[in-house]
Specification:
Chain lengths: ~400, ~400
């Protein structure tokens, strides 16, 4: 894609250390893109556990069905991801393409079929030529390396303008463990799940049930707090693989106190990745954080914050650097959750704009306008009902979004 | 507003006959706009009944509260509407501005305070200088005419690029009656209610309860089927006034068989007005009709159709004349209502695109692409569950929307 790199991109791609038990390689299979890697394979050692979260879309893609089914086994050996074709809404052909990919992977990487995980991202409704993927698998197998994270992150990109990755370290029982994550996503991004593919790899020794609980809780604090356009993908998939190669005693429960640091670092890594997705929102020029307080409960708070974050009128005002806070009031009102119009308070960039249901006396827009000209916008809203709170990350809605999405397939 | 007239505008403004018992006049009060009419007053004869529907927003504007309260009385004598300032989220000042307007209108037009209806549309959060409205009232009173519908429709415009009106005639008991309607709205348009102000005037002799039932049912088939951007206004108001001047016997029930033709004509007029709103969607270049069938029930059908109509990805694809029907699948999937992925069928411009959960065999995009280049786009979706059906009207999402809304207040 010829779109310029998002002005909100991090300055550099992080350096990811190896994760013991994980080897990666990518290839250019020419599924849709020319002259770039578009297939990623990650091979994990025997004994790797897995958990994950997938889209709640009722028209989910065939690979999502596979991941859901195979997650139940809790074991993983191979992950295969392609970009350029979502293999979604492809009927029986889509199921066959997944089966062909799984069979080839199980044979080449010498594992069980239910230890293979497949994801596809790209255009919906076009049959996926699975042979393009299976044809490059032997070469990929020969090229597997412990440290090819940059190409791994690149191979899964679609309209992304930069590759996304993050790494953290933690200790469990005093033993250091690594957590690496890569992800993609920049449009069709809204919770449950944010449109994306995201994969987390750790050498921690965790039972599958613990992996599942950790990743579900983490997604709720990170990817489910991101929205670009309110559209939800048919392919969203977040998987976490634990190779169990670290030398601490096995952990069987996510609430085990030995995981306190690990949980914090995992959540932090997921939030880092999720924010990178918002920073690469299609056409984004502003990164927006919405802090919602005073709602009836946390779910209501999230819903109101999302109503603000997804409002085209709020998003275009931010793009226009216009402190048009009346549109925030509108978005609170339409969210369908309790809000007290006459106690509503709004702060933009730390400056109180509205209080007790109207503009603050002597409201001076100057500092707010200055804040709106920056790249990082902070909006705080208190709806005056209770103690529910939420944070949501999004971006503005610009001409770039229209450009990218009015001609995606051409 | 310097925006060019929508390419989807009707070729001419309709000629509206007088409605016996209604007189209108408009004035340029300079509330926000220069050199144009921005205040409308409609005076109705004694005995006029009223019913209406207002926004479900929890942050509704002060004039909405007034309309809700006064509708209970069922009687109307004066309607005052201003454009340029919504008098929303203006706290006690907003209530005072409404009270000042009501008091002046009751005095000048010699009626009760609870027979005055007020609407305001425009920027949110800015105190409304009510004296600008009350100052022009005596001149308006002197200028009242039976046939000034064109200025009436113009006076209530904000970002609208054309004035919106419609007229119908019907007979009740063999007596001809007139139904005239004017409305405004082009952004912040989504059901419950579509953002808009809309006023219907008829000389039919209807009790207030009948008016209320008729307009509620009509709104549900018209304005509640329109969306531009999914944003819901704090000011949406639809009122219907019946002057009871026609010489048929009084009708007290909306289901009275004598109203069969009247109901049909009223619904038709409301649909006409609602479609004009979609045709003037901010930045619109395509008018889109979405026909949803096969849902669990009609409410589910509406919700899925709205999910398609509000999807930024669907709307930008339409703007780009791209028959990217995969995004329709996505929008069905995210709607949260039952849909059978493997029975889903999609038709665009009458051409079957997808059937039984995948592209039709030998799908030829040529005729669909030709349809996408037109100004009127028809999308038909069957979700394969039950017999629920709905129709929704919307428009595409273009650079024009960003232009208009990124700089609304400047």
């Amino acid at each position: 894609m010829a779109h310029p790199i998002s002005p909100l991109a991090p300055p550099t791609f992080p350096t990811l250390p190896p994760v013991k038990g994980v080897r990666l390689a990518s290839a250019a299979a020419g599924i849709r893109y020319k002259d770039r890697v578009d297939v990623l394979v990650a091979e994990m050692v025997q004994g790797t556990t897995v958990g994950g979260v997938v889209t709640k879309s009722l028209t989910a893609a065939a690979p999502v069905d596979l991941c859901k089914a195979n997650m139940k086994g809790g074991k993983a050996r191979v992950l295969v991801v392609n970009a350029g074709n979502a293999n979604a809404f492809t009927g029986q052909k889509g199921i066959s393409a997944v089966e062909a990919t799984v069979s080839a992977a199980a044979r080449i990487f010498n594992c069980k079929r239910n230890e293979v995980f497949v994801s596809s991202t790209g255009t919906i409704g076009v049959p996926l030529p699975a042979e393009k993927i299976t044809d490059v698998m032997p070469a990929i197998n020969a090229a597997l390396k412990e440290d090819d994270w940059t190409n791994a992150a690149k191979a899964i990109m679609t309209t992304d303008t930069f590759a996304k990755a993050a790494t953290r370290t933690a200790t469990i029982d005093g033993v250091p463990v690594t957590i690496n994550g890569i992800c993609k996503g920049s449009g069709m991004v809204a919770p449950d799940m944010a449109t994306m593919l995201a994969y987390v790899f750790t050498d921690a020794a965790l039972e599958a049930g613990a992996v599942q609980t950790l990743i579900t809780a983490g997604a709720n604090k990170s990817f489910n707090c991101v929205t670009v356009d309110g559209d939800t993908s048919t392919s969203d998939t977040l998987l976490m693989f634990a190779t169990c190669q670290a030398k601490h005693r096995f952990v069987s429960s996510a609430v085990d106190p030995r995981l306190t640091e690990f949980r914090a670092k995992l959540d932090d890594l997921l939030i880092d990745l999720a924010k990178q997705v918002a920073r690469d929102g299609e056409g984004a020029t502003k990164f927006v954080e919405i802090r919602l307080t005073g709602a009836d409960n946390d779910i209501a708070a999230r819903r109101i914050a999302m109503s603000i974050a997804n409002s085209p009128l709020v998003k275009t005002a931010i793009a226009g650097e216009d402190a048009n806070w009346g549109r925030i009031v509108m978005a609170v009102g339409k969210a369908g959750e309790k809000a007290n119009r006459d106690r509503l308070a709004i702060t933009i960039g730390g400056v109180q704009v509205a209080l007790a249901g109207e503009a603050v006396p002597g409201y001076d827009e100057t500092p707010v306008t200055a804040h709106m000209k920056g790249k990082e916008i902070l909006i705080e809203v208190d709806v005056g009902i209770g103690r529910g709170a939420a944070i949501v990350w999004t971006c503005d809605l610009t001409h770039g979004y229209i450009d990218i999405n009015g001609s995606y397939r051409t």
